[in-house]
Amino acid sequence: MKKTIFLLSCFMITAGIFAQNRTIPADTMITTNHFVTINGARISYSANNGMQPVWNEKGKVIATLHYTYYKRTGIKDMSLRPLLISFNGGPGSASVWMQIGYTGPRALNIDSEGYPVQPYGVHENPYSVLDVTDILYVNPVNTGYSRMIPEGEDMEKSKLFFGVNADINYLAEWLNTFVTRHDRWLSPKYLIGESYGGIRVSGLAHRLQENQWMYLNGVILVSPAHMNVMFSDQPLAAAVNLPYFTATAWHHGALPEELQKKDLSEILSEAEEFTINELLPALARGAFIEDQQKQHIAEKISYYSGISIKSVLQLNLNIPTSFFWKELLRDKNGKTLGRLDSRYLGTDKTEAGSSPDYNAEMSAWLDAFTPAINHYMREHLNFRTDLKYYMFGPTHPWSWDTGNSNIRENLRQAMARNPRLRVMFQTGYYDGATTYFSSKYMMWQLDPGGRLKDRLSFRGYRSGHMMYLREEDIKTANEDLRTFIREGAPDGRPAKY
What band does 151 get if pLDDT is binned at 50, 70 and 90? Predict the structure, then answer.
């Protein structure tokens, strides 16, 4: 593999300094050249791995962000070459998950269902979208190798980074600099965000257009968190979880026989109809629901969730997700369910209790991703530092800015003001943290008038939060993403209603 190193003198500071101060240059870049085979075609690409500063209003460097920028080589007209800008969530999570799990040219060594295997590491990703778009993976402050400068600043400075609005503000400015430095202003641009990254890119779509005058072709929300549901009243938050319960119970064979013998898509349609037409109105009545109706609803919840009627009634028709993860298999095999992917099973100290001891899926994922990304950065991308790679960094306390952050409305405004902008949701049916039906609900409510619905789409997969870890779904999800990007390609038509 041919490697070219830029700004080597900036990066390779004396060993004595690195031995005493575990720091990283604020503005540096290392470039390596590679090949990958995608959908049977061999393509060449460069990987720029480096740090780009964040400046305050006085032009002083206050932080530096670590990024990886993959660019297909041999492209003559970059004005037609899309740029996909990728964020993960947390808040406080690095871009590692989608970089070596989903869209990047190297993919994690895991089994076909997403479980860790040894030896750890990465291999060529035959499903990567690098064939149709260049990709930028960004690590916000205190994720990956990104840090405040100097590191460990006081809480007043952290307010510049650790909050919904603060996060969007500085990242929009940072992206403006990156696009300018790398001459990508003419390129079609797409944002993709997973989990909290869905909130991040929804806000960024609006902020980039309104404050940086950078207009987008598309936004992809992968298993997005939903502020409007998270901070809503209880009946809504409780109701939208039921179809997820149905999917998970079906996967574990915990539903009545007449449901188990049906395909998942069929029973999810039934559960969704019950949720909207019966469950939500019943929960809205609270204590004043009639006893007969309450019994009927409890029986239907039990039917679609695998949880006993007795437990449903004791919980006032509202099954907490933590209870569901502990309860569903309690009397079957005593195992608990994963939070972000309920296909994963855990083992608690006791079978009694109302919630699992730990998140089974996260233990499996960190087992696979952490050694792989540390090795990949160092040995494949030649990015060598003693600085710790933060899988989950210290970004708390986080300001949710609930009084002045309406992310859903910001995304709607971005779409309204840009006739070219399209939005796609990608979610896993077995995700118990950001459930798939809450994504559908958000999509339905994004534009209640229906004027924008022809630019909204939803894709569901038979996996969890990181739906791309299942081999069948990484192929399908990348193809959905590839189609979405191609459909948004420049066609010479003006952006107007």
Answer: low
pLDDT at position 180, please?
Answer: 98
Q: Which architecture does CATH list for 3-229+366-487?
A: 3-Layer(aba) Sandwich (3.40)
Averaged confidence pLDDT in the chain: 92
441-448 contact pairs (CB < 8 A, 24+): 441/226, 441/229, 441/236, 441/240, 442/224, 442/226, 442/228, 442/229, 442/408, 445/228, 445/408, 446/408, 446/411, 446/412, 446/415, 447/412, 447/415
Of the two residues 338 and 15, the one the predictor is more confident about is 338
DSSP string of 186-251, one letter each residue:
TS-EEEEEETHHHHHHHHHHHHHHHHS----SEEEEES---HHHHTS-HHHHHHTTHHHHHHHHHH
Residue boundaries of the structural domains of the chain: 3-229+366-487, 233-361
The lowest-confidence range among 6-10, 76-80, 209-213, 263-267 is: 6-10
3-state secondary structure of 497: coil
Q: Is the peptide bond before 91 cis (omega within 30 degrees of 0)?
A: yes
What local confidence, expressed as pLDDT, does residue 19 receive?
Answer: 46
